[in-house]
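Researcher: Can you fold this with 5'-deoxyadenosine in place?
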Amino acid sequence: MKYKGSAYIHTIGCQMNVYDSEKLAAILNDYGYEKTDDLDKADIVVCNTCSIRHKAEEKAFSFLGRFARIKKQKPHLITVMAGCVAQQEGKKAFKRVPHLNIVLGTQAFSRFGQLIETVQSGKERVVDIAGSQKIYEALPDTSVAFGCDENKISRFVTIMQGCENFCTYCVVPYVRGKERSRKPESIVEEINCLAKSGVKEITLLGQNVNSYGQKEGGISFPQLLSKINDINGIHRIRFATSHPKDLSMDLIYAIRDLEKVCNHLHLPVQSGSNKVLKKMNRGYTREKYINRISDLKKHCPQIALSTDIIVGFPSESKDDFNDTMNLLHEIEFDSIFAFAYSDRSSAPAAKFSDQIDERQKRDRLNALLQLQERVTQKKNNELIGSIIKVLVEGKSIKKRDGFEQNSKNMKQMAGRSESNKIVHFPSEHDTIGDMIKIKIEDAYPHSLWGHPAGA
Ligand code: 5AD
Ligand code: SF4
């Protein structure tokens, strides 16, 4: 396809959106648009949106809103709202952003190219949020479009989409649709291709990876992990997200036995209170969650754990909140992602009584984060003196005090441990993509510092 112009893609939200943006870039590439990081040069601007919380949704509208003025000077500019907010709003999006050209829902990505052509042929506004059973297979291969990307060490691969768990706070079942799994052959082929282009680490994505393939009657998630474990060139396999109610013993054994699968599990608990868990429709109790963690630790004693927490869910009392605080004390997660509950009109909890006021939510969030910072610091301190394997991702953005004076010919590099902790260390060479052993000397809540072992 001959060159038509430049495309700028702005991504808001989760890892799946990052992956989706790569797919959109690949389609744009097929239609003659080259990716640019310079907004001023763009002939097409895509905002890939997230609707999980109010703030993310507002970010999307505010980003796209600013093109009203720019389009006056550059009338040929095509503006696109893609992803979850697009799927949720449909043509209503034009009310808030009248200058928008394309509303592209999560279910309509495979038709993006045709929509661009429709706009180019003179139609000012098009919207597509129709359903599709296919996920990704009909889309171009991303590794071709992104072959020259700088950070090729670690990549996401979506293995399934949608969710039918209907947690009462969550928009995902409404904006991502019913659960669908990709075919194992197609996933393996994509990862093979990524491995050949130099990728060393893969993170498999799905809203609930534990139920991978169940509907389709194909292989299970642990069996898929085993197939990916056999791919040459891939050194590490991560995955997210696991639902505690579906965490199987087979998955625990896969983490224990498959050497490339990282010794790390992200297992969102959301709350430590049984009352709140029930209202959230999570399908497990605090006790059941703790039991799963015990099983996990029995078979994988070194496992690193992370979780998601929502504070200020409707009717969350002080006692309920304390139950969550106590759970963090008891389990000692390596890290957490914590959020203040955000009302989403399409999710049932928006209609629940006893909504918690914003200030209280903020106070609870701060208390929770402070507690976790102490826990993370304690866990990271325990690593001082140990030697851990790090996959080197690039140069450190952070500079260590006194680093330059002490080590003139050294570069300061950064990578991640198997447990997903950021590790900084000095090195004479660009070791990007290498797996190296680092002796940990210093620990902070958000990073570890050390030297190559033996150096
Ligand atoms: N408000 C706050 N946090 C939410 N999450 C999902 N929906 C909401 C909401 N309405 C959080 C959950 C989930 C993570 C991806 O986002 O903790 O695990
Ligand atoms: Fe949302 Fe619950 Fe599905 Fe996760 S499991 S995507 S929180 S509905």
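Model: Folded with 5'-deoxyadenosine in place. The chain has a mean pLDDT of 93.
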